[in-house]
Specification:
The protein is mostly helical. It has 15 helices and no strands. The protein has helices at residues 2-38, 43-60, 62-69, 71-89, 96-122, 129-185, 195-204, 206-237, 241-257, 259-270, 273-289, 298-325, 332-360, 362-375, 377-380. Helix 11 (273-289) packs antiparallel against helix 12, helix 11 (273-289) packs antiparallel against helix 14 and helix 13 (332-360) runs antiparallel to helix 14 (362-375). The longest helix is centred in the middle third of the chain and has 57 residues, at 129-185. It is globular.
């Protein structure tokens, strides 16, 4: 059985790698694409609508669907929809249909990652959770680094049309590898759990509620950085996409280099708590440093954003490791609520970010984010460590 799980995990990792490769290829360009097609004021609302759809699906549809039909059919269906949406976006012009395709595409990404989470969880023994989560996140983030090397080049030579077409091809390849993983991992169905019961479990547990707050901060950080950093670097600082791609490749390197060893350390020596708090401190201070930079010098921005991601990579693997040590494969509802934090943040943060930028400017947004990172040390300090 363990050999089957190892083989299945290998295929699940390949599926996740290919899906993340496409995700990274287009994610940092999505806000620029939407800004050019629909206007900068439409960017926040479009992301928020997509996040709201994803949030409702994660809370009320996805856990039941996986419980009844299993993760293979769930992820396969969503990958097919993503291929359709990306192919449509590759031919997009300003229209209601293009806006609908953009929302359809964005709303499915969190659901697919949730389905992959359940497949990896099925193949993981609790004692190895930190290590496996470290490997999983490292594989996904390696895809992000690799893809960003090509984003600028594709945009310069083929524009957004070619970018989304290449994304569709990569999703198709991930669908092909999903079959191998799914036939091994999708072995049984689970009993659906009511949404209200999941929330009661979270609120009654100091550890779960605290780690949920940490994850909310992390998702807020990602949303601000993914949507508004490219716009700020391009429109305010004056970088082109080739320069932005170089900065982002350097920036994302901690996710590849740090998460696996940190996961092993959490399993074998220290637990998650102290490392998590360290990551929050680094995130907060480095994000505040952004407000003092106005130079269009690549290496200054690359180093500053690199330090923010040293903190974020640490917080991500520690929060995931801690959470998945406290749940099992049967807790589909709890995992769905945990993954619903990203779209929940995605509903409010893009609009809130747009309001802050409109009233006070980009630097005020980064200042608020840095302070929020430091304040999140409070719930992180409340959790009971696993070692």
């Amino acid at each position: 059985m363990r050999i089957v799980k190892v083989r299945a995990l290998r295929y699940a990792l390949i599926t996740g790698f290919l899906f993340s490769l496409h995700l990274a290829l287009v994610s940092y360009a999505n806000s620029t694409f939407a800004s050019q097609l629909f206007g900068e004021n439409a960017v926040g609302p479009l992301f928020s609508i997509a996040a709201f759809i994803s949030l409702m699906a994660l809370l009320f549809w996805a856990p039941r669907k996986i419980a009844i039909n299993g993760s293979l059919l769930f992820v396969a269906l969503l990958l097919l929809i993503s291929i359709f949406a990306l192919t449509g976006l590759s031919q997009a012009t300003f229209s209601i249909i293009s806006a609908a395709l953009f929302i359809l595409y964005l709303s499915h990404n969190s659901l697919i990652l949730y389905g992959l989470d359940m497949m990896v969880e099925h193949a993981t023994d609790n004692a190895d959770t930190g290590k496996i989560r470290g490997i999983y996140l490292t594989v996904l983030n390696a895809a992000w680094m690799l893809a960003l090397l090509g984003t600028g080049t594709i945009l310069e030579h083929g524009g957004f049309n070619l970018l989304y077409l290449v994304g569709a091809i990569l999703v198709f390849l991930s669908l092909a590898t999903l079959y191998k993983a799914g036939t091994m991992l999708n072995t049984h169905k689970l009993k659906p759990i009511r949404v209200g019961l999941n929330f009661r479990k979270i609120f009654r547990s100091k550890n779960l509620s605290s780690i949920f707050l940490v994850n909310f901060l992390l998702q807020t950080f990602y949303i601000v950085m993914v949507i508004y950093t490219p716009l700020y670097l391009a429109n305010t600082i004056g970088f082109g996409w080739r320069e932005i791609s170089i900065i982002f490749v350097v920036m994302l390197s901690p996710f590849v280099l740090l998460q696996y060893p940190l996961g092993r350390i959490a399993d074998m020596r220290f637990g998650e708590k102290e490392i998590l708090i360290f990551g929050l401190i680094v995130m907060g201070l480095a994000t505040l440093m952004i407000t003092s930079i106005d130079s269009p010098t690549i290496w200054i921005w690359a180093i500053t954003l690199l330090v923010t991601r040293i903190g974020a990579a640490t917080v991500e693997v520690m929060s995931d490791s801690y959470f998945f040590k406290h749940v099992s494969e049967e807790d589909t509802g709890l995992v769905s609520v945990y993954r619903a934090i990203a779209p929940f943040a995605g509903v409010i943060i893009p609009i809130l970010g747009a309001l802050i930028i409109g009233a006070f400017g980009y630097l005020s947004l980064f200042s608020c984010l840095g302070v929020l990172c430091l304040l999140t040390i409070i719930p992180a300090a409340r959790i009971k460590d696993t070692r």
